[in-house]
Amino acid sequence: MSNISQKNINDSDYSEILSAAISQIQNARTFIAKQISSSATSVYWNLGKLLFEKQLEEGYGSGVVKQLSVDLKNEFPDMGLSPRNLWNMKRFYERYYMADSKLLQSVAVLPWGHNLLLLDKIESLSAIEFYANEIVEKGWSRDLLLNAIKMDTYSRAESQLKTNNFRSTLPELSAEYANEVFKSTYNLGFLGITEPVKELELEGRIIAKIRAFVLELGKGFSFIGNQYRLEYNNKEYFVDMLFYHRGLQSLVAIELKIGSFKAEYVGKMNLYLSLLDKLEKGENENPSIGIILCADKDHLDVEIALQDINKPIGVAEYQLLLPKDELQALVLNEINIANAAADNHKK
């Protein structure tokens, strides 16, 4: 830090510069990756359209597609133009050619492997749009997408109530935006946890994979620190994790709880937010927001606990990776379904 101090830049200012630089590089890489995926998908779309319009079907059209694959691979050996992939392109076109432009834009930027997984696993177009948006926002790998589908994340997101007091504590537009930013459930499957852990261990694992956690939170978050120290009236307080959201222009405090939600967590978070607003909030920034992240919550318990609180607080659940025996059961179930489908096809 010696060179930094010569420029009269303190550690906090440098951390902000570093965070902004990392964000710029990541955004540029994401943009380039999207352009590449979009271009490839456009080619696959047009090839699928060609096969569709020529009314080629598996069976009588197999010979044509097989020969087409051979000739195209001679011209373009690095494009993955196998007969199976050509038929997948036709499936891709058939699934979406009558869909609205919003859905088309969502799937156009996805890697081809992600699109194939959605084609194989999801029938509902609204569910496909949900997963496509999640992939783009959070940078899900194909494995994380599969895990989200197995956990039926779409249905959970559709059915869950918002457990926060944003509408009563924030201006109307800010409250609407905050409700879009924060979710009722967060998937922490990337931590690979299959056995009970303590809160500090959970926090430590999240910090070790902070980039994955920030992606799960969504766009606009910058990590400031964990066990963030606040001092007031000769007393010390420590926030589990502190973030800043550029769109909301608010500090965001996250408290991790291993067990179920308890009403006393709200009082503690309310105190932290008061201290953050008093000690850390910038003059032009909006009020700090608190998120209590726990293993389980009851909507009515949360509602009564937040009833007379004047600081914006939300309560969310987290989901960890399924235990090994449940994962094995899911895999066996998939194998059985595949075998049954193969037997029916032979009949």
TrEMBL record:
<dbReference type="InterPro" id="IPR011856">
    <property type="entry name" value="tRNA_endonuc-like_dom_sf"/>
</dbReference>
<dbReference type="InterPro" id="IPR041527">
    <property type="entry name" value="YhcG_N"/>
</dbReference>
<feature type="domain" description="YhcG N-terminal">
    <location>
        <begin position="23"/>
        <end position="156"/>
    </location>
</feature>
<protein>
    <submittedName>
        <fullName>DUF1016 domain-containing protein</fullName>
    </submittedName>
</protein>
<dbReference type="InterPro" id="IPR053148">
    <property type="entry name" value="PD-DEXK-like_domain"/>
</dbReference>
<dbReference type="Pfam" id="PF06250">
    <property type="entry name" value="YhcG_C"/>
</dbReference>
<dbReference type="GO" id="GO:0003676">
    <property type="term" value="F:nucleic acid binding"/>
</dbReference>
<dbReference type="Pfam" id="PF17761">
    <property type="entry name" value="DUF1016_N"/>
</dbReference>
<feature type="domain" description="YhcG PDDEXK nuclease">
    <location>
        <begin position="180"/>
        <end position="327"/>
    </location>
</feature>
<dbReference type="InterPro" id="IPR009362">
    <property type="entry name" value="YhcG_C"/>
</dbReference>
